[in-house]
Amino acid sequence: MGIFWGLAGALLCLCNTAVAAAVVSLDEGVDQLAVTGEYLQLLDDPTDSLSIYQVTTNRNTDFTPVTSDIINLGHTASSVWATFSVQTSPSQEADLSLERASQAEPEHTWFLEVGYPLLKRVQIYVVQGGEVLQQYDLGYAHRMSARDVQNRFFVQPIRLAAGKEYQVYINVQRKNGSVQLPIKLYRPSAFLLNEIESNYVFGLFFGILLAMVVYNSYLFLSVGSRAYFYYILYIVSVGCAFLTTTGYGYLFVWGEFPLINEYSLQIPSTLAAITGLLFVRHFINVRQYYRYIDQFISLMVGVGWLLIAIKLLTPYFLSEVITAYVALISAAMPVMTFQCYRKGSRSAGFFLLGWGALLVGILLYTLSMLGWLSTNGVTTNAVLVGAAMETLLLSLGLADRINTERRAKYQALEAQHAATLQLKDTEHKLMHRALHSGITGLPNRIFLRSALDAAFNDAEEEFVLVLISLNSFHEINKTLGHSNGDAVLRKVTQRINRFCGDVEHIMMLEKHRDGVHYLAAIEGITFGFFVREDNVSRVQETVLDLLRQLEQPLAFQGLTLDIDASAGLACFPHHGRDCETLIRNAHIALEAASGRREKSALYSQEIDPYSERRISLIGELRNAIEQDQLQLYFQPQLQLGSGQVSGAEVLIRWIHPEYGFIPPDEFIPLAERTGVIHSLTYWICRKAFEFKRELATQGYPLNLSINISARNLQDPEFKRSICQMAEEQRVDLHDIIMELTETAIMTDPDEALTMMNALNEAGIRLSIDDFGTGYSSLSYLKKLPVDELKIDRSFVMEMASNSEDQLLVKTTLSMGHHLSMVVVAEGIEDEATLRILKDMGCDLAQGYHIARPMPGQDFLKWIAGRVTGGDQSYRGSMAGL
Q: What's the whole-model pTM score?
């Protein structure tokens, strides 16, 4: 027993008096009556050994008066007897539908209700004069179908005769757990009305729970969050607990399975605590605010599952333990939630409102039970209303969470969309930057390649790629600065692009907000476009016209700028069938045009110094020099005044084992670009000096003319190396003439003048080769330590029939002689030209009409034949060949 029963027993012993309980008077106007503490007396039977006979006859079984209207015996496994006296009214009218015709006195039926469905045993005895008139055995140990009245509570019809007094005994027992004894008496009609009202209220309550389960199940299936899943389990667990405490579970669900009643409250209550904790964890996202609260929840969930396991696997009832566990969780959850609410959790606010509604309902119900509030429909059903409000508010909280999450997702999607747009804009800018020039804004080389690739797909149409390069633009940058240079470049490209718009069949590269781009920026100051045209000559004329338009003065910041440009052309498919080849060949044509100071050039293999064969020749040329696979040829030079052989020009020949004869103008430019020219020149000089010594040995003191490159003039060791070789071969450098072209001298005039002076000081005579084809000025020519001028063959070969060439040659002879120079004419291929030159006073002559270049041994034979023949006439000399 509890403390209450111990104190009650001590009080009885001290007073040794019995307090008589009031008699329940069932008057005519009474339809229902609650048997409260003033009517009841209780007897505790801890050993469950008393029978109804012992209770009614044994004076040692004294009943204890009840001083409270709320009959809550606490957690006990004892058998408890309750008794009260009933007095019926003699003036009651019989309810003929319920009377028994065989009775001498009228009897009335009253419904005796024990309103606590958790009792395992409920035995009812109606006693009169010590005789048990009626006896009923109820309790959840029996199936629902065995009852006279199938009701959620323990309801038994009893028959009471009018004007009589009865003693009613009720024996109750629970396996363990809380024991309550709310007892009521109803007339049948009043009982029916009360049941209708109760069923309506509880139907509404369980309907709300079911609706919340369906609603949250939909949300769970839609959203997939575990918070909704745990909340559904929480509602179901709470609903099962209420089904047990209200008796509707046994009435409608498991009425034929009494054993379930042993678990139907403890298990759902524990599950409600567990799922409530898990719901709080995920609904509020506790871990975000307090890690220790999350750890406490994990601990309590583990304890809950342990209690369920013990309950299912052992005979322990665990009523007090589970009650304490649920109470602890019920008290802890609002505290934990409030802490999270203080941290700004909106969901925690909804939880506190729902939990507060439930606590208010529990408080109202408790106060009404204590008599501090009047008992009415509100206070009686306050717990149900609070639970329903909690369920609704938490569902609203979940819906609000959905809206919040959707709003957050929508905002995140908006942010993502904005980021995507920004990313696309950035990608577009990066792509534009990758495909356009940062200075001019024109499509760049990559863009042009893409356009060319698209043009290649239409292989039936021919087109011409044109590259334009601005000449001497670096002077503008150096004069105006790079920023202004960029501005000038933009204006120039806008002008070119505008001119391109007038070109027939030109291909558009792209449209932009300000117009159309036909022109692409290839690199630096080189730009390109292409025209669908199979008539290359027409494209060349168009390009020349465009370049002439470009030469019109350009106004910039008060200055008038002259813009000069060159162009290179390459045709598809003749000059390349892929983008790389076509652009490469157009570049080569552009280089050729710039190198020859021409306005434009069309690609051809003849002007291409970068062929695969030529690249392979570079390495092979080195090997040929090292292996002495080259040959020297000598072309005689005649003194026109005496007809004597004065010397010979040293020429290089390369007979390749695979390619055969390779002309010097093919491999010498390669040697100059790669630096092999130094080794080649030294090899030529060494071999020429050896031949010069052989000539001297055989009595031919002839001069040898050796061609040198501009690169040799830049070699600071050149003079020393030549002098050393001459000393080794015992060659007099006064018999050596070194020929340089005007172009070689003008590459770096100052450095060339320094080296030429050094060579002249060493005794080497210098000659300007191909005179008339370069750009040297007469004022500069006077400064050079030159002993000889060599008129280019282009002026000599046709001078016999061309008066203009005769005038040029005559002028050159006059100028050379006035500068005290020896003048040599090369390219003489007929007798008439030879005689004209003699008449003009030319000093030396060289050409096929005199003798072709020949190897050293053939040259020795040739000159020996001239000496033995003794023919000094021009014709004789020719015949000697």
A: 0.50
